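Trying the structure run again after the queue cleared.
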Amino acid sequence: MTIRVVIADDEILARDELSYLLGQWEEIEIVGEAEDGLEAYQKIVELKPDVVFLDIQMPEMNGLMVAKKLIDEGIKTLIVFSTAFDEHAIKAFEMNAVDYLLKPFDEERLANTIERIKKRIEKPNQEKITELLYQMMDESKKKETKKNISKLAVQTDERVIFLDPNEIVYAYREGRDVRIKTVKDTYLTKFTLQVLEEKLKKYPFFRTHRSYLVNLDYIEELVPWFNGTYNLTMKDPEHSKVPVSRQYVKMLKDVLGL
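Done. Tokens:
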């Protein structure tokens, strides 16, 4: 039996790790990878894999949206979710025939997943996962899922740095690059600003400008600038100036109670 697999995860390190671990099984053939939800959906439609290992938190479309779309369209690819968060979702997955993997991946747990996949291929049944997905989509409308991260893994060109989100002063886009400014240093990251905003939803970050994401706890001053715009002075050693565009001024004042 050959099991054709697509891996979908916005983190290249997670994709590489899962690809390596799955490569230990002769019956597994990795036919494609995707780094966001939209690409995952397109790869699944194009390649028609037996299984997709689907990260829950991805840009463009999250994993739940991708899975719901596949089911709505009658696409029979089996779904294994991977997540570093969403403990309430994990409990739900445990009651379902489709499996989940908790990051960081565990080899023994993955072996159990492969066995469950084999059984599902022999005896397909999608009813339970359909019910679960609709339940979770409804729940996500009522309350946004928050990631319980304690450290933010920032991949640079040469290494991975683990930052405490509480020590991030702001993040900003400079050309095509996105940088994270902490009290002590500045880091170039491979995240987009949109992905960073999603990852830091649990923390008091606010988008003040299309190119800036600010930690509200580090605001020192809000100063009028010109034509309805403002500047923020931040509580870092450089007293950095961060712009607030007109479209975000009212929302920022509301958040700050002004």
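The chain has two domains: 3-142, 166-256. Worth checking whether this holds up in the mutant runs.
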